[in-house]
Write a structure and sequence with these properties.
Helix content: 10-25%
Strand order of the largest sheet: 3-2-1-5-8-4
Strand content: over 45%
Mean pLDDT: 82
Largest sheet: 6 strands, mixed
CATH class: Mainly Beta
Number of domains: 1
Order of helices and strands: HEEEEEEEE
Shape: extended
CATH architecture: Beta Barrel
Low-confidence stretches: 14-30
Number of helices: 1
CATH topology: OB fold (Dihydrolipoamide Acetyltransferase, E2P)
Oligomer: single chain
Number of strands: 8
Distance between the termini: 69 Å
Length: 121
């Protein structure tokens, strides 16, 4: 008797979940992996107070990103201008510089690059 109730409850749950609308943007399609990006490195500068680098990547899927000691760089290990990149970024990290005795934001900051593959040039 209890087995029949469990089967009915599971069946109803499966049918209900099947008909729920799901909309997943393309950047969220890789759940848990991060935001995909790729393009040519256009600008790169150091962030002395936060010990990372601000990197601006151009099209086709670019933006402002930060790279730190936790970034895994594959293949040519070249995150300098004008290398091509393809990778994943996750949480927002600011780019900070010294201003007197305090640290202040410099530039827009951006998602931290988790892993990236690069070209030679």
């Amino acid at each position: 008797m209890a087995t029949k109730k469990i089967i009915v409850v599971v069946s109803v749950a499966v049918v209900a979940l099947y008909f729920l609308p799901v909309s997943v943007p393309i950047t969220k399609g890789l759940v848990g992996l991060g935001q995909p990006f790729g393009g040519r490195v256009i600008v790169k500068y150091r962030c002395p107070c936060s010990f990372n680098s601000q990197i601006f990547i151009g099209p086709p899927r670019g933006g402002a990103f930060t790279s730190d000691s936790g970034t895994i760089v594959y293949r040519e290990r070249n995150l300098n201008i004008p290398a091509w990149t393809l990778g994943l970024a996750d949480a927002y990290v600011p780019c900070l510089q010294y201003s007197g005795t305090a640290c202040v934001p410099m530039g827009p900051g951006g998602p931290r690059i988790r892993m990236v593959g690069t070209s030679k040039f």
